[in-house]
Design brief:
It is built from nine helices and 26 strands. With 447 residues, it is an alpha/beta fold. 39% of the residues are buried. The chain binds adenosine monophosphate and magnesium ion.
Length: 447
């Protein structure tokens, strides 16, 4: 295997940054412990000011979509670079407006978006102007075409404006009103979106400094797992977790190192883990952390790092392991997910996603949470977070409503594909009656 060298994102070895042992944690405690333990590339960059970041690269604008901005982008120009008209209409000196008085102005020509008007516009005159055209010196107000009556030729006739239609300065965009020269247009840590690329283009910049993609190794563990293309032997299942997780990572703009399926065998597991540590900033595994088979995984991980095995009070989910791992002088971060396909994916969204984004240097942006009426209700005891697959729709009265989508078993992936959201019933909450309000994470925010 030809593995690329990873960046070293793990702090120097010291006391474990992770709550050790078999702690029973609420989902919120587990999330917080992960985010505390992981280094924040963004915070480190903040200390270094705007200096270039190690490993940052300039990429062409269009290749920057979804990448993490490595440095603040300061605007090199005023945007817009000149006062201009916001409407098609007539530009004039707003001082001519007198309260309660109609206005009559003589048009002195036309200016289109592009080169400024070459002539002059004197007192009592106006200029026919198109949207985006440069405001001539001395003119600060635009009356939209639909608010005036023109007598004679549009470019050279008399323009009548009824009283009370507009204020001086209206319908003019000011130089630098979008972005002033030298001011930050975008902050380091931004995960770049289409509007950001538009904003960068409006500054005339063709390339963007971005952080290297986070590299994440993925493998599945289990003797019963078969890879695609293999026959499905009796008692076996196809490895679906690797594909769902690799796809989720791809959506986050991360590089995936696919290490396949690993048998429940300590030597094979160790070899694959070492390859993962050598080649990636983070390692994502599924299976092998539940009580039945955690023991040999535990012994191995105790040799490779400081991984804590948690019982996270969540459903689906619960078994989860996390911590720094080292091999051959390299270090990485291990996230070991439960094997049940829905538990793996839900644990990824609830526990891993934000941590990986933090490692990637992304600025944290809270996911949108909606409140919706829970059509069916959810039965639950306080003491764990329940994340159910749901279908979020708009009710006839305009409010959001969510219905439980299909069977909620931790292995039932088909109901996950029917869902478009997760219904989140918080740790301390009890049953939700039919029609009660619940928090909902729309999938479009997660991925
Ligand atoms: P484990 O967490 O290893 O005890 O696995 C729990 C359940 O999830 C078992 O039924 C496994 O067969 C199933 N499972 C584990 N890994 C995968 C995977 N990669 N793809 C599909 N099912 C899996
Ligand atoms: Mg297993």
């Amino acid at each position: 295997m030809n593995l690329p060298a990873p960046r070293n994102t793990t702090p120097a070895l010291g006391p474990s940054p992770v709550a050790a042992g078999d702690a029973q944690l609420s989902l919120e405690e587990a999330r917080a412990a992960i985010l505390r333990a992981l280094p924040s590339a963004l915070a480190a960059a903040g200390l270094a000011g705007h200096a270039g970041q190690p490993g940052a690269e300039d990429v062409p604008l269009l290749s920057a979509l979804g990448r993490v901005l490595a440095q603040d982008i300061l605007s090199p120009i005023d945007v817009p670079s000149h006062d201009n008209s916001a409407m098609d209409g007539y530009a004039f000196d707003g001082n001519a407006l007198a309260a309660g008085q109609p206005l009559a102005l003589q048009a002195a020509g036309t200016v289109f978006a592009g080169p400024p008007f070459a002539g002059s516009v004197g007192p009592g005159q106006c200029l026919r102007i198109m949207t985006g055209a440069v405001m001539p010196a001395g003119l600060d107000t635009v009356v939209p075409l639909e608010l005036c009556r023109v007598e004679g030729d549009l470019a050279l006739g008399t323009v009548h404006v009824a009283p009370g239609q507009l204020q001086p300065g209206e319908n003019r965009r000011l130089r630098g009103e979008d972005l002033a020269c030298g001011k930050p247009a975008l902050r380091a840590g931004r995960v770049l979106r289409p509007a950001d690329l538009g904003l960068v283009a409006s500054l005339g910049l063709g390339t963007v400094p971005v952080r290297p993609r986070l590299r994440v190794a993925v493998f599945s563990t289990g003797d019963e797992l078969r890879s695609l293309g293999q026959p499905l032997d009796p008692g076996c299942v196809y490895d679906s977790n690797r594909y769902a997780l690799m796809a989720a990572l791809q959506r986050l703009g991360m590089d995936v190192l696919d290490l396949g399926v690993v048998r429940d065998d300590p030597a094979a597991l160790q070899a694959t883990l070492e390859a993962a540590i050598a080649g990636a900033d983070a390692v994502l595994t599924s299976g092998g952390v539940s009580a039945g088979d955690a023991d040999h995984t535990r012994a191995l991980l105790a040799r490779l790092g400081e991984v804590a095995f948690w019982k996270v009070a969540m459903r689906p989910g619960r078994p989860f392991a996390f911590g720094p791992v080292q091999a051959a002088g390299r270090s990485s971060w291990l996230f070991a997910l439960p094997g049940n396909p829905v538990a793996a994916l839900v644990s990824f969204y609830a526990l891993v996603r934000d941590g990986l984004l933090q490692l990637a240097g992304a600025r944290h942006e809270a996911l949108p949470v909606l409140q919706a009426r829970c059509v069916d209700g959810v039965r639950k005891r306080p003491g764990r977070t329940e994340l159910q697959r749901g279908r979020l729709t708009r009710a006839a009265d305009g409010h959001w409503q969510v219905q439980v989508a299909g069977s909620q078993g931790a292995g039932i992936l088909s109901s996950m594909t029917q869902a478009n959201a997760l219904i989140v019933v918080a740790h301390d909450q009890g049953s939700v009656p039919a029609g009660g309000l619940v928090d909902v994470w729309p999938f479009d925010g997660l991925v």
